[in-house]
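U., I forgot to send this yesterday:
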Amino acid sequence: MVVRNKPPRFQPIDTEWVFASQHERDPVMKPEEMEQAIIGNLPDKTGRSLEEWFAVLRDSELTDKRELKEHLKSDHGVGHFQAQTIVKRYLLQ
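Result:
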């Protein structure tokens, strides 16, 4: 039973009230699943696939991890976690 007039984290010992946030009702993704979801969503969210982002990074001629991420974020408007995932995969290849 969700009680809406209690603070979101209120949970008495008898567990009559439960945490009412959306996060608690949604299944939690493992890091590997989150990374796959980010990669799968790249074309829709950024207009480019992972391989196309690899080409962008190769063309940049940058080699430092931090510089690569900053390049994607500042020059191409890629989000933080997207940039992190792209650069991680790029450096692993």
